[in-house]
Please model this.
Amino acid sequence: MIIALDAMGGDNAPQATVEGAVLAAKSSNHKILLVGPEKLISGELLKYHKKYDVTSLDIEIINATEVIGMDEHPAKAVRQKKDSSLSVSAKLVADGKADACVSMGNSGAAMAAALFYLKRIDGVLRPAISTGFPTVNGSCIIADMGANADCKAEHLFQFAIMANIFCKKVIGIEKPKIGLVSIGEESTKGNELTLGAFKLMEKGKFNFIGNVEGRDIPKGKADVVICDGFVGNIILKFGEGLAEMMLKLIKKGFKDHPIAWASLPFLWFALSDLRKKVDYSEFGGAPLLGVDGVCLIGHGRSEAKAVKNAVFSAARAAEHDITNEIKEAIAKYGNISG
Amino acid sequence: MIIALDAMGGDNAPQATVEGAVLAAKSSNHKILLVGPEKLISGELLKYHKKYDVTSLDIEIINATEVIGMDEHPAKAVRQKKDSSLSVSAKLVADGKADACVSMGNSGAAMAAALFYLKRIDGVLRPAISTGFPTVNGSCIIADMGANADCKAEHLFQFAIMANIFCKKVIGIEKPKIGLVSIGEESTKGNELTLGAFKLMEKGKFNFIGNVEGRDIPKGKADVVICDGFVGNIILKFGEGLAEMMLKLIKKGFKDHPIAWASLPFLWFALSDLRKKVDYSEFGGAPLLGVDGVCLIGHGRSEAKAVKNAVFSAARAAEHDITNEIKEAIAKYGNISG
Model:
């Protein structure tokens, strides 16, 4: 697969993106198009020459002179900066020169660029951003995680169709359990939005397991968790904040009770699973579902390993042709509001 | 203060409620009305006689023959079971025979009983349930935590007025920082509901600090966190589930890495702050804000200590006359939708 990587996206770009590209190219047959200011990127790439023999790797630099910052207004930035690394990455997919694009940058701008260059899939009412979240027994994906603050029932229904396909094809779960985030297990519990979505999802051509409550998400009750982007964004960020709080309090506990210091080296072993679990670099990026081409967003704080995993996710999504799978599914049984 | 305690409410009733009443009466000047089947409760009370000299304590049993279960339909149960421990507790407040009532039972039924016997405060559009949540540097209160799944901007505005008073008077923070749960710090970020609520809250007669994101809640950015009951309920339950998941993974880590066992006794010290922090028994119950009388709901799994703390919270709320404070505030500047 040919993957266009926005070399300038994310807090640690271009170091992390370029190293991530090197790692990805080294351990796969994918060709990586590194998109960004040519001189800057080639200089960065040279740093890894000794260690990885960069010239032997299938990496090509595609020049793009502009950069979209993390705080820029998404739609405006994409409209104005046609030669930004993000826009050029999306264009490469639109022009058939890449099979997928990946960015660790401004996620709103990535969605705007995808909509501008790749367009929406016919019949998709609202594209969604879907992302991985750790659970006791593995992980689940949440859709939408923030692209759509206000949703209607039929939007949630389509999120379920699209995330089901991603989970099946890219994550490899044969019959993903699809849950609807609500405030009670019974079909009669919820708000207007989820009560309406429940009725649609009951009839969906996927494995709908009904409502899932807040506490069911980390328990791993569902493989795919459906909610509007407002709720999804709050769940994700709240989860991050809570995990940080717990680690801070554990640290404070050690500081306040010097007797506990003796346990530190041993504790390291005990916490290894937990650390791995909450490490977002394992999740491999968040796909934009419903745009006509494969586009993945990674965490803004991504280091090289997370970039590599995002490239691999994008390649898997392209290999399994999820764009066409979604097209067919939406055309067949997803177009309910006309 | 005279506090009516629903002796039959909660998973551990009547053991935990009766012992909680004993503990509360022993360490305060409050009179506790233990509401439930007379024989059962007096038998339970006798168990503590040796240890606490129960006859010297200011506890009175008020007979109530029926019990509302945790899974009963709230409004229906309250309508039908007029002699339930919960209904009689609320009636005692309505009749001026108690200053406040407390229940660890079915929270929906507690709200229904409060609305039925105490009524809504004039001008209050929707009463809310407010509850405590741990933060890095203390705790915050969240309103609404589940009473109102669908809200309008003016409901959230009134939640802020009421929770501000509770936080000031009962928790003792002079100028509580009030935050609106949203998906971005800027006033332009959010969904239709929060965009509208932001405009109202900007002009509120309280210390509005603007939007708070999911991760800001455990960071303790706000003392009072305002959201609709759908979002509040998901935050709370998700937080519970996530904390459980993290503890499970730590336990699994110890199981998988026997070398870490050596750290267990020391770890106990280090985790003491964290354990105390996530211990809901410290929070002392969730007030129903906007009903015409003080009514608190405790966690269904409450043990005696949590019951005692809920009784103390209710007494503080009654002492500070928060019902009249809320009445005045709503009449003065809370009645915006007529």
User: Anything to note?
Assistant: Chain B touches chain A through 63 residues (CB under 8 Å). The radius of gyration of chain B is 21 Å. The longest strand of chain B covers residues 128-135.
